[in-house]
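#lab-general

N.A. 3:47 PM
ok so I finally got the sequence cleaned up, no stray characters, all 103 residues accounted for. can someone with queue access submit it? mine expired

B.Y. 3:52 PM
send it over

N.A. 3:53 PM
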Amino acid sequence: MAHCIIRGDAVFADETAPDLGIPWRCSTAGFLTEVVERIDRLDVAAARHEFSVAEMVQLDLYKVHPEGETDETFDRLMTYLRDFADRCRGIAAHGLGLVITMH
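B.Y. 4:20 PM
back already:
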C-alpha cells in the first residue's frame, strides 16, 4: 500500500510509455480519498517509536544524512506526509485523480 500511495495506484497509459519513454502511474479520486484516510489514521506515536535515522542509514533504505537528528528528520517527513495528504484531499474533493511521472 505504501508503494501505491507514493508511486500511484495503477499504470496509466502504458501503451505510450515506449514511445514517450516516460512511465506514468495514476491514482483515482477514490484511491486518493483512501490515501488521506490512511494518513489521517496514522498512529504518529507508534511510527515515531519505530523511526530511526541510524537504522535507515544502516539498511540503506532512504536518503538520509547519517548525522541527521532523528526527531528533526521525523518531524520533517511527517510534515511532508501531511502536506501530501492535504494535496490528495484537495484533488479528490474536485473528483480528480493524480498522474505521476516516474523518473
